[in-house]
Specification:
The chain is of the alpha/beta class. Helix content is 38%, strand content 19%. The protein has eleven helices and nine strands. Strands 5-4-3-6-7-9-8 form a seven-stranded mixed β-sheet, sandwiched between helices. A two-stranded antiparallel ribbon has the order 1-2. The structure holds S-adenosylmethionine. Its EC number is 2.1.1.297.
Length: 277
């Protein structure tokens, strides 16, 4: 019979990082992912065979590059527990930079109107609504599957967000916003990393030969959908800040600037639509 500490060590010898082994073990035990202190306090407890079998299966899934969040079915984002699965991209901690930036841009705007384009699990839209209950938050995705995940998260978290199915701003004809926020697909279609991603939806990642097709569309459309001084804030690839700044500048945006992610990489770029154009 394997103990808690032996099971975690076994997964690590197969190549799983310690933290991932602990999270998968907690999941097999039916415990919360942050309950790592429990594992320490119970390191010599024997695991029953059903828990061992679940842990072994999930360790193999992880070794087969499936994201931990798809295996456990949940991910923490901006203090919210989101349910996620293979229909949506696993929300990344770096995307919290975009949420923080949006909140600071909207700090002086009462009851701001905001849209999250390409909402996936609903991460950005729900984080904004949670932090600014007075905001009117819309979210768009081209994937009906993603919208099912996002609206279920909104319902479970009791955060009212207005979801729309369609391509970027097309479903919001005639609407204008104080901020348009998006983490769109931005990987070049021939990027070698895409081939390694077997579990994530490709439509959430790839965007033309230079990875900028969707960002070009959003920048072009946003000009018609921002109030004067409204912000367009975009997450993008590690080497795309200069290109995105140029796109925004050419479209007529002002105050164009970039923000670093947790690793210090310029990962978000945005600008303001001017008062007089
Ligand atoms: C990189 S994922 C971001 C998901 C989520 N916002 C997050 O940060 O975790 C991009 C999302 O854009 C959506 N998407 C792709 N093309 C789209 C389009 N033309 N219009 C709207 N959404 C689109 C995908 O379905 C996917 O959910």
């Amino acid at each position: 019979m394997q103990t808690v500490v032996q099971a975690a060590a076994w997964a690590q010898t197969l190549g799983l990082p310690r933290l991932e082994a602990q999270v998968l073990l907690l999941h097999a035990l039916g415990r919360a992912p942050h309950d790592r202190a429990w594992l320490l306090a119970h390191s010599d407890d024997a695991l029953d065979t059903a828990v061992q079998a679940t842990f072994a299966t999930n360790t193999q899934r992880r070794l087969n590059t499936e994201p931990v969040a798809y295996i456990t079915g949940q991910k923490e984002f901006f203090g919210l527990t989101l349910h996620v699965d293979h229909r949506v991209l696993d929300p990344r901690a770096d995307t919290e930079t975009l949420v923080e930036w949006a909140l600071s841009c909207l700090a002086d705007t009462p009851s701001p109107e905001v849209v999250d384009l390409g909402t996936g699990s609903g991460a950005i839209a729900l984080a904004l609504k949670h932090s600014r209950p007075d905001a009117q938050v819309c979210a768009v995705d081209a994937s009906a599957d993603a919208l099912s995940v996002a609206s279920a998260n909104a319902k479970r978290l009791a955060l009212p967000v207005d979801f729309h199915h369609g391509s970027w701003l097309a479903p919001l004809n005639g609407c204008t916003f104080d901020a348009i926020v998006s983490n769109p697909p931005y990987v070049a279609s021939d990027d070698a990393h895409l081939a390694a991603l077997k579990h994530e939806p490709l439509s959430a990642l790839a965007s033309g030969v230079d990875g900028l097709d969707d960002i070009r569309t959003i920048v072009r459309q946003a000009a018609q959908h921002l109030k004067p001084n409204g912000w367009l804030l975009l997450e993008h690839g590690y080497d795309q800040s200069h290109a995105v700044q140029t796109l925004l500048g050419n479209q007529g945006f002002v105050n164009v600037q970039s923000r670093p992610d947790l690793a210090g990489i310029l990962r978000c770029t945005g600008g303001q639509w001017p008062t007089v154009k």
